[in-house]
Amino acid sequence: MENPYLTGNQGPADVETTAYDLEITGALPHELDGRYLRIGPNAIGDMDPVHYHPFMASGMVHGLRLRDGQAQWYRNRWVRVPSVSGQLGEVPVLGATTAAHDTANTHVIRHAGKLMAVSEAGALPVVLDEQLATVSYNDFEGKLPHGYAAHSKRDPNTGELFAVTYSAAENGGQLVVVGADGAVTGVERIEIDDKPMIHDTALTANHVVIYDLPVTFNPDAAKLGFYPYVWQQGRRSRIGLMPRYGTNADIRWFEIEPCFVYHTANAYEDGDRVVLEAFRHERVFDSAWWKPLEVAPALWRWTFDLKAGTVHSEQIDDLAGEFPRIDERRIGAEHRYSYGVALHHGEVGNLAGRGIAKHDRVAKTTQVHDFGPSRFAGEAVFIPRANDSAEDDGWLMSLVHDGERDRTDLVVLDAGTLSAEPVAVVHLPVRVPAGFHGEWFPTQD
Ligand SMILES: [Fe+2]
Fold first, then answer.
1. Are 421 and 361 spatial neighbours (Cβ–Cβ below 8 Å)?
2. All structural domains of the chain with their residue ranges
3. Residues 15-30: pLDDT tens digits?
4. Which residue spans adopt a coiled-coil conformation according to this UniProt entry (predicted)?
5. Domain 15-442 -> CATH class
6. At 2, phi and psi to the nearest 5?
7. For the whole model, what pTM was predicted?
8. 21: CA distance to ligand 1 center in Å?
9. 3-state class of 334 per DSSP?
10. pLDDT tens for residues 22-62?
């Protein structure tokens, strides 16, 4: 069997590179002073193509340091969980862990001054330094019942970080609240009678969104060494609204048509209603255990009427896409714009797409910056021009692989116009394999 995640640009990088003073086409805005980091799966050593799955793979983080209109360096580093140190023949950086799932390959976040590579399903965050070297686990002073989450939402006003965590070790999940100072302030059980995969959440002024969808832990798949979360035909799909500081008893559950959601665009409250927008998948991990994308996903809206106890579902865009991002100053408030990856039709198994889409909820338009047939873009992160600039006044940053050159560029687009001409393109001397999520970390004073 040929495993699609071990070939082409979905296959792993096999060396760590450090490169300085990268070539730039166009002009990097001087406001961009910081690091763009993006992480993804990156197998190390010989992989069995029958069992390899990117969601379980070792993580590799890629980073660029931008400053004064220059791209000062590019680095890629494996996150040195013990198995990676062993494969590399190095003295382990990290101590022993009881984590159910020991990898960090899905997202990079910074909270309370700690830069962390994060995954879900029982994995502990791994703290990285500014040059992407592995430093330590962050077990949040032992306060997490299991690991942390790949996705969390930061309240732009309070700085609190909200996440829904889960692990194969226990049914259901937990709502974990971390204060702006990095200390855990709340852990609440979420009672569910099996073990769903909960990849993301959403935050509104008063609620946290819980996805209880029919991709659940299958012990037989785990025993056989396959990715253990699979589609469970006939299981209910529901979305829960949990008060930010509530308990399991306070969750209001709303049944929806069967589907799966990896990623939220945003959620907000509108009087007695909660509005949630996310990319909806008809099904995943169904026809084959290795298929995280089966049918082209699209942007949907669920409107929950808290008074009537009803939910209204509607597709709001027909573009095949994924990896939605917004201006994160709008998390939990009504947003106008979201940005996603426009997928190549017929290549729904790919972790990258043909372009970057801008969805405008007011004009009801979708604009696509198309990179062309041989170029594949990853998730685009929105960076505001200044702290007080308007919602789409800033840039989008994405790693784009050029299949003809087998090299990757960091492409900076004007988010306001999505103009065909990028603001700047930073040329990397290597390819960056298709990956998961990234973030822009401005230089801290
Ligand atoms: Fe994700």
1. no
2. 15-442
3. 999 999 999 999 999 9
4. none
5. mainly beta
6. -90, 125
7. 0.97
8. 31
9. coil
10. 999 999 999 999 999 999 999 998 899 999 999 999 999 99
